[in-house]
Specification:
Radius of gyration: 17 Å
Helix content: 40-55%
Strand content: 15-25%
Number of helices: 2
Structural class: alpha+beta
Order of helices and strands: HEEH
Number of domains: 2
Length: 72
Amino acid sequence: MNKEELHSIISNNQSNICQIVAYKDSEKIYSDEWNGYKVDDCTHVMSATKSVFSLLIGIAFAYQESSLQMQG
């Protein structure tokens, strides 16, 4: 899928998405906005924050568990 296809799918089917930004090795590799939003606009992201935070907690628990298994 190229950038134009992704932009079209989101424009037509995902009206709640306003921006996607992707980084790889600390470098921005993709950025796009929809529905009149601009790069510097602020939005409400509480659900996204909860999802990322939950993911990080799960990674921390998995890391701790594997670390304890290697010691025992």
